[in-house]
Amino acid sequence: VEVREIGEFGLIERLRRALTGGHPRLLVGVGDDAAVWRAEGRFLLFTIDSLVSGVHFLPGRHPWEDVGWKALAVNISDIMAMGGVPEVAVVALALPPDMPLDHVDSLYQGLEECARTYDVALAGGDIVQAPQVSIGVALVGRALEGPEGPLLLRRDGARPGHVVAVSGPLGESAAGLRRLLAGAPADDPLVRVHLRPHPPLALGQEAARKGIPCAIDISDGLLQDLGHVARMSGVGIELWAHRIPIPQEVWSAFPREALTLACAGGEDYQLALVGREDIVLSLTPPPTVIGRVIEGEGVRVLDERGHDVTPQERGWNHLRQR
Amino acid sequence: VEVREIGEFGLIERLRRALTGGHPRLLVGVGDDAAVWRAEGRFLLFTIDSLVSGVHFLPGRHPWEDVGWKALAVNISDIMAMGGVPEVAVVALALPPDMPLDHVDSLYQGLEECARTYDVALAGGDIVQAPQVSIGVALVGRALEGPEGPLLLRRDGARPGHVVAVSGPLGESAAGLRRLLAGAPADDPLVRVHLRPHPPLALGQEAARKGIPCAIDISDGLLQDLGHVARMSGVGIELWAHRIPIPQEVWSAFPREALTLACAGGEDYQLALVGREDIVLSLTPPPTVIGRVIEGEGVRVLDERGHDVTPQERGWNHLRQR
User: Is the confidence metric ipTM above 0.85 for this complex?
Assistant: First the structure.
């Protein structure tokens, strides 16, 4: 049996089972956007994500500065999805010996810009030799705290009656990637969204403070990411195609695939929130309600007449046979 | 200019300069064994290290369980070298799709055994596709604290008059690697030391509690690692060849290269301590004094008659042209 037969999520589930019972220090272990542990009265968040050349970006297409930005931004997105405050990051770089030094400098610059923008302290790391470039970033943050403990946006907090909302437009990043691969320049507006994701960090914190119970960041694709929420919460999710915020630029560039790009394209790094409608709509800026939580299981997309229009593609699952 | 021309340490220095001025949250940033930051009255340690297939281990030679163990152990070694207590780790796995699933299970098992042995909570991670296997582990720990602040073993704490001591035998791991590559089985005693390093974590904590100011773990090679201490402390180090603890098995296996293996072989994951002789010798078990700190710069090895016998090889510097 090879790993492609069970894919990324199968492997994560297998790791969860290998770590029998977790550890008393852990409040949240394998399976949410970030781990949570108790550190003498404080609750800390921990996440790690890697970008691999040829898998997450293509040298010669993706500018190194943007790769550096994104390597940190995707981790900030995970802390956002728990409602936390990112604090300190370390970087593991794997580089081939013939990589031009000015590429590394550009990579550093992008990392530093993102760290400055989100007030994250970059604290060092590790550099090793490898046949191709990869950038791993680990990020620690803290949970906001209320009178009764940490305020966390968890994947398992969705309940029937909740609405599902998203913080911003979907499909731009996937559309931008297609344009980039087709030769569009790095300053094309859709390409910019793909290269420089800006997770709306403050929104996650406001949601946690206001008691929203559930969120996930949209990294692999809306359907796949909400699929984790549905499975871990033991509920079903119904999305309304006409409410999904797909920008005009995405419709113009890919008229027949816009819904699929928005539902399965991934890398939007927007926040999907699940909770009481009045609280969700009180956030600033108010997210767009795109569906609701129901009894049942799975995630479906319906059109205005109630017909199932769920795209076949669901999103990115590393290693999974396609 | 390519990265091989400045190597791993040149790249780290360049990163340090790119992060102009550090961040107010950081007590120790780029350049020590682990970063240190202030988290509301508590001092946390943060480190990251990766093992890359073909660079740090060879599939078919290095059993996957041992690779898993080592991926976490090398990070525990960094926390040890700051005198800290490791707490929580996350893992970034990069795998090719055709990797057999039982190899991944073995890898997980080794990680889990090491986590259990050192009471580290494994909190999850990230799995991505890549052409070859790499395992990145990020580890957070806490610093022990005294009445005046965190008790840290730092690289810049060496002063003339201090002794230099090591926690255990040197050269076994490098000798074990050579034997492994020559076809020795995984249960050969020297090969075991190479495959399953056991950083003496409690010793680092005792040293920190007793006020030892300076330490580093021996990962790249004794000369190279103490070279960082000498440079960052602005001192010279004189080592005495006949005092370096090189086991009989290493002399028997590699009679002409034993001193070089002990001085430059690396991956011993022993602790090198620098401080007052009486305090160093009061530790349990007492480390072996192998030299002293002097005015000047650099690291030299002398024989019993005071002749310079410093091996030409100094240790491992990733990416550096050889």
Answer: yes
